[in-house]
Specification:
By secondary structure, this protein is an alpha+beta fold. Strands 1, 2, 3, 4, 5, 6, 7, 8, 9, 10 and 11 form an eleven-stranded antiparallel β-sheet that branches. It has three domains: about 1-45, no CATH class; about 50-190, Hotdog Thioesterase (Thiol Ester Dehydrase, Chain A); about 195-295, Hotdog Thioesterase (Thiol Ester Dehydrase, Chain A), CATH 3.10.129.10. It has five helices and eleven strands; from the N terminus they run αβααββββββααββββ. Helix 2 (about 70-90) packs antiparallel against helix 4 (about 220-230). It has helices spanning about 20-45, 70-90, 95-100, 220-230, 235-240; strands spanning about 50-55, 100-110, 120-130, 135-145, 150-160, 170, 200-205, 240-250, 260-265, 270-280, 285-295. The two termini are about 45 Å apart. A hairpin with a 5-residue loop joins strand 4 and strand 5 (about 150-160).
Length: about 300
C-alpha cells in the first residue's frame, strides 16, 4: 500500500533551514497518524466473500508470437486469484503452513473461447464449490472482458497436503468452513483420470532448474503448461488455437529432477493430443495433459 500525503502549513523552511521546528513536526506526525488510521480502517481485511472478483491486465511478457495471451499465463492468473481468495477466506499460505497444510493443484480443465492481446483488461472470478470424489476441494474460474465476453472457463481440483511428509490429508482435517456455492458452475464436469495412449513420441527432456521451481520446492503448476506448449512447432500456433486443455498432476517434480516429455495424437484425431511427463529416475508419471486444437478462422 502506498500513497502521498500533502500538507498546507504556515511553517516555512528558509533557504538555510534543515528542518521545521519541533511543534510543527509534532503536528505533522499527529496528522499523519490520523490519516493512516483512517486509511487502515478503509483498507482493513474484508469479510469472507463467496465469489472473488479481480481486475487483471495482459502484460507484454505474457503474450506469444501472435500477440495472444499464453496458456501458461492463464494458469498463473488462476493461481494468483485462487491465492487471493484463499487469503480472504482465512486460508492464506502462511496460516496454512502453520497448521501443517498446503493447497496443491491436482487437476484442472479449461476451455478457451478467445485469446486476449497485450494490454487488454480482464475480469477474473473464482469460487470454491465443495468436495468431489471424497478428496478434492473444487474451485471454478471465469475470465471475461469488461463488457462480458467470455475468455475462458475452468474447473479445478485441489488436494490438501502435509508440507513435511508430502502426504495427502483428508478434507475433514481442514478447520473452518468454505463458502457454499452449490449449483454455481463455470464447468460442471468431474475431472477424471486420462486414458493412456500408445505410441507417444519423445519430444525432449528437461530438468527442474531454478527458473521453474516455486516456494514449495517443486515445479510450479503453470510451468508444466510451458513444457506442453513447447511440444508443438511455431507453425501450429500460427494456424490453430487451443480449444481446451485438461492437466492431471500425478507426482510432483522436485528441484533438480529430470522429466522426459512425450506427445502424440489421440485416437488418430490430429486435433486432439496427449502429452505426458515421466521421471526417468523413478519411472513415475509426473503429469498428463489432453488437449484439443481448433483451426483459426
Amino acid at each position: 500500500m502506498s500513497f502521498t500525503i500533502t500538507f498546507s502549513t504556515p511553517a516555512k523552511l528558509t533557504p538555510t533551514a534543515r528542518c521545521w521546528d519541533i511543534p510543527t513536526c509534532r503536528n505533522l506526525l499527529a496528522r499523519c497518524s490520523e490519516i493512516l488510521s483512517i486509511t487502515w480502517i478503509k483498507r482493513r481485511p474484508m469479510l469472507p466473500i463467496p465469489v472473488w472478483t479481480d481486475e487483471i491486465r495482459v502484460h507484454p511478457y505474457e503474450t506469444d508470437l501472435n500477440n495472444e495471451w499464453k496458456a501458461a499465463a492463464v494458469f498463473q492468473a488462476f493461481q494468483e486469484v485462487a491465492n487471493a481468495h484463499a487469503a480472504n477466506l482465512g486460508y492464506d499460505y502462511h496460516s496454512m503452513l502453520a497448521a501443517d497444510h498446503i493447497w496443491v493443484l491436482s487437476r484442472l480443465k479449461v476451455y478457451f473461447y478467445r485469446f486476449p492481446t497485450m494490454g487488454d483488461r480482464l475480469t477474473i472470478c473464482t469460487w470454491p464449490k465443495g468436495i468431489r470424489q471424497k478428496i478434492f476441494f473444487t474451485r471454478d474460474f471465469q475470465i471475461a472482458t469488461p463488457d462480458g465476453q467470455l475468455i475462458a472457463a475452468a474447473t479445478s481440483a485441489w488436494l490438501l497436503i502435509d508440507p513435511k511428509t508430502r502426504r495427502m490429508q483428508l478434507p475433514g482435517s481442514l478447520t473452518g468452513t468454505l463458502p457454499n456455492n452449490a449449483g454455481l458452475n463455470a464447468l460442471d464436469e468431474d475431472l477424471t483420470k486420462l486414458a493412456p495412449e500408445n505410441g507417444l513420441a519423445e519430444k525432449f527432456t528437461t530438468r527442474a532448474n531454478y527458473s521453474v521451481v516455486d516456494v514449495l520446492g517443486h515445479v510450479n503448476n503453470a510451468r508444466y503448461i510451458e513444457w506442453v506448449m513447447d511440444c508443438f512447432p511455431f507453425e501450429q500456433f500460427k494456424t490453430h488455437q487451443l480449444a481446451w486443455l485438461q492437466i492431471n498432476y500425478n507426482n510432483e517434480v522436485r528441484a533438480g529432477e529430470t522429466v522426459r516429455i512425450c506427445a502424440g495424437v489421440r485416437n488418430g484425431d490430429a486435433s486432439r493430443w496427449l502429452v505426458v511427463g515421466e521421471k526417468p529416475e523413478s519411472g513415475e508419471r509426473a503429469f498428463e495433459v489432453e488437449l484439443a486444437w481448433a483451426e483459426r478462422a
